[in-house]
């Protein structure tokens, strides 16, 4: 059995992730994020440059080429969600980074045609019937390249015309993993559809979900017309309703937590969606994590924040475990790790987050004060 003390490349963070409080118009909020997280935003853009360069042999794509490709997606985002394009403009302004670079960062999955397969997240949720205190809980391990781990921060936002929300993000990415004042939480897992097209970028679609006031509205936002591709959106409502919306650019299926439990990783579960999955044989570790998390989650009908945190720290199938570690070496296409792990208590409007691998780092608590 591998213990956490034996795992290399596992940084310890002695402070909680920075909290950035923003309010106002979407452009103003973007400016506030860019100014407060200028170092993180600039660092994440530099990392994206390096990632594209390192993968040139397989992608045949330069950063300039990525910028050109990303511009094709912008009109679709502008037409449907100009407010979130304004957020990107504000982030660019506040961080002294070009708008083109911020757009490219937020459209990275699309312009690389998902070839990097770097996102290996694990999400789960339990309703009030499956917790010891009757609270609705959700948990998410965010896996990404280790160079972006230091760029993680928390946003507490009060938009002028949308619900307040609390979300985790990193660098110059639009926030999407979090919850809002209407008791709606969203967890995101990358999936790999074969029908991707130029359209509304996935991150913009996911950002819009945080503005929902009803669970049906949240589901509807994940399925907006002209989306470029799709994520799995694990949506949780404070009433205990839990859904996974598996989406591609043209297809979707809605999974429902009939037994009060839900787990999702990075492959499609619904049989119809499996038909549009690209290279399913490359997603074996996702299936292992899915079955492992499902087994651990179903071992209790009285979950707590602590029990979900214990699942987040699991090392079966290391390094591609639920608590994912960067052990394999220098391959730029296989270096992802868990850069944070969070548990949301939707009933209490709280987020508990470990910065870095949860096996090594302490959880810190953030509240949404609406």
Describe this structure in words.
- The radius of gyration is 19 Å and the shape is globular.
- It has a domain at 115-367: Penicillin V Acylase, Chain A (4-Layer Sandwich).
- The mean pLDDT is 94.
- Helix 4 crosses helix 7 (99-106), helix 5 packs across helix 6 (82-95) and helix 9 runs antiparallel to helix 10 (215-222).
- It has helices at residues 26-36, 38-54, 56-59, 63-71, 74-80, 82-95, 99-106, 108-111, 202-209, 215-222, 271-274, 284-298, 305-312; strands at 19-24, 122-126, 137-144, 152-159, 165-170, 177-180, 184-190, 231-237, 242-247, 252-256, 261-264, 337-345, 350-355, 363-367.
- It is an alpha+beta fold and 370 residues long.
- The protein has an 8-stranded mixed sheet. The protein has a 6-stranded antiparallel sheet with strand order 11-2-3-12-13-14, covered by helices on one side.
- It contains 13 helices and 14 strands.
